[in-house]
Write a structure and sequence with these properties.
This protein has about 325 residues and is α+β, with helices and mostly antiparallel strands. The protein has eleven helices and 14 strands. β13 and β14 form a beta hairpin. Bound molecules: acetyl coenzyme *A. The site of acetyl coenzyme *A has 23 residues, from α2, α6 and α8.
Length: about 325
């Protein structure tokens, strides 16, 4: 089946003004600004205020994307939300956002693919628009990871932050649009990066809370190794499927997890620094939100011009990984 093309017609993002710096973390755990910056590239992260929810910040990003697209919430046929930090197990965060923005004509669902959740959602949305099922789809990545971090564990506490990014996808008006759609998973690597508690395997008990089983557990070095391998794999497949050479790429936006992982992809593709978008220093790792936040920022800063070729690459827990080349 030949799919029609879909394209990004609006972007938006939101992060709380509340910021936690590396120096703040030095007062909480045995770490240093120098260690965090040197090993990850992170300097600050935004933390959602108590009393506000994942769907609150996602709704804000969604409204900004709709405004940018010149559409009303009622024009939206479907909402996909990449998240591993939902408001609750159910209803989905997507349904909560739907209610908050008034997208009453839409179907809404969450995409559970960890840090690849936004890109998975974007590719699913593209195929639904391309096959003519829907016209306008809101794809969101939104996370409140600060509420799933063990703040006493220096190996994870320094890495994560909160925020939301959104795009509106609609039918292409010609050349513009997604040129490739690559998604992969390997469930055998699931226990390298996960939250053991809170699901039906390990419902909440006093003991599970005492043992921090409801927070992120990560085998950092192992994750690092697979992250480099899967990101490079995704980037190369995404390019090949689009029939685009690395040197034709105008901007690379990867999941913002660690500067050294991003550099490995940059070197493999032989891209100069100015073609690699980085905002990891400002936001830390915001999982599924990192790519749409970066995409919105890149657009607002004029780093993306009409006709540019953009390569998006993600990896995350599961393991999951994905890539797409987009003609902007
Ligand atoms: N501050 C100071 N020292 C620390 C800290 C910290 N915050 N964390 C760990 N250390 C120490 C360790 O205890 C260890 O000390 P030791 O040698 O005395 O045992 C030393 O630093 C080195 O630890 P490593 O774990 O080997 O450090 P590494 O260079 O691998 O960096 C890191 C750790 C940054 C976590 C790295 O492994 C990494 O980035 N992994 C991938 C993480 C990632 O991307 N996760 C998210 C992916 S998916 C998603 O986004 C949800």
């Amino acid at each position: 089946m030949t799919l029609l093309k879909s394209m990004v017609i609006g972007t938006g993002s939101y992060a709380s003004d509340k910021v936690l710096t590396n120096h703040d973390l030095e007062k909480m755990v045995d770490t240093s600004d120098e260690w965090i910056k040197g090993r990850t590239g992170i300097e600050r992260r935004h933390i959602l205020e108590e009393g506000r929810t994942n769907s609150d910040q996602a709704a804000e990003a969604a409204k900004r994307a709709l405004k940018d697209a010149g559409l009303s919430a009622k024009d939206i046929d479907c909402i996909f939300v990449g998240t591993i930090t939902p408001d609750s197990s159910f209803p989905s965060t997507a349904c909560q956002i739907q209610a908050k923005i008034g997208a009453h004509n839409a179907a809404a669902m969450d995409v559970a693919a960890a840090c690849s959740g936004f890109l998975y959602g974007l590719i699913l949305a593209d195929t639904l628009i391309g096959s003519g099922v829907y016209k306008h789809i809101l794809v969101i990545g939104s996370e409140v990871l600060s509420r799933f971090v063990n703040w006493d564990d220096r190996t994870t506490a320094v890495l994560f932050g909160d925020g939301a990014g959104a795009v509106v996808l609609g039918p292409s008006d010609g050349e513009k649009g997604l040129l490739s759609r690559y998604m992969k998973s390997d469930g055998r690597l699931g226990n390298l990066l996960y939250i053991p508690g809170g699901g039906s395997t390990c419902p909440a008990t006093h003991e599970s809370v005492d043992q921090h089983l409801h927070t992120i557990h990560m085998a950092g070095r192992e994750v690092f190794k697979h992250a480099v391998r899967t990101m490079v794999d995704a980037a190369l497949h995404g390019l090949k499927e689009a029939n685009v050479k690395p040197e034709e790429i105008d901007l690379l936006i990867t999941h913002q997890a660690n500067m050294r992982i991003i550099n490995a992809v940059k070197h493999r593709l032989k891209l100069p620094d100015e073609k690699v978008f980085i905002n990891l220093n400002e936001y830390g790792n915001t999982s599924a939100a990192s790519i749409p936040i970066a995409l919105d920022q890149a657009k607002r800063e004029g780093r993306l011009k009409e006709g540019d070729k953009l390569l998006l690459v993600a990896f995350g827990g599961g393991f999951t990984w994905a890539a797409s080349v987009i003609q902007f």
